[in-house]
Amino acid sequence: MKKNERRVLVVDDSSTIRKIIKHSLQRTDLHFGEILEASNGREALDLVQRHSFDLILTDIDMPRMNGLELLEALSFVRNAEDTPVVVVTKYTSEAGVLRAMEAGARAYIRKPFTIEELWEKIQPLLEPKKRVLQQ
């Protein structure tokens, strides 16, 4: 992987959805180098413990460990401390969005989504942090 490329983790129990997200990410100009996949939160947690990621996109409704449980578990993983997590799910209730944000999600995307919607949500999360100059 090249220095300016980003590593992303896509977590969804549907292989079709993972492929759609992966393809959508590759069609943006955000320089994704390595896009790893996991079919549930447990697989994702294992990958996060072994690799660092620039971005994690996760579904909520999955077997073994759902997206909310994954978000909670990520708060205890040193590799994931500053990694933005975006929830990509079919659930649209305000309560569901609030729960995901309280658990640590930085953005929320409803399925189905367009490439533009995906880009609009993740692009600000990947911008380099600007330093505040002290006067």
Notes on the protein architecture:
This protein is of the alpha/beta class and 135 residues long. The protein has one domain: Rossmann fold. It is built from 5 helices and 5 strands. It has helices at 15-26, 41-50, 67-74, 94-102, 115-126, and strands at 6-11, 32-38, 55-58, 85-89, 107-110. Strands 2-1-3-4-5 form a 5-stranded parallel beta sheet, with helices on both faces. Helix 3 (67-74) links the parallel strand 3 and strand 4 (85-89). Helix 2 packs parallel to helix 3. The protein is globular. It starts with 5 loop residues before the first strand and ends in a 9-residue tail after the last helix.
Tally the structural domains.
1
What is the radius of gyration computed over CA atoms, rounded to a whole number of angstroms? 14 Å
Indicate the percent of residues in helices.
25-40%
Classify the oligomer.
single chain
What do we call the CATH topology?
Rossmann fold
Specify the biggest β-sheet.
Answer: 5 strands, parallel
Structural class: alpha/beta
Strand content: 15-25%
From the spread of the alpha carbons, the general shape counts as: globular
Order of strands, main sheet, comes to 2-1-3-4-5
> What value does the average pLDDT take?
89
Number of helices: 5
CATH C-level class: Alpha Beta
Name given to the CATH architecture: 3-Layer(aba) Sandwich
Low-confidence segments, ≥5 residues, pLDDT <50?
A: 129-135
**How many angstroms does the end-to-end distance come to?**
38 Å
Classified in CATH, the superfamily is Response regulator
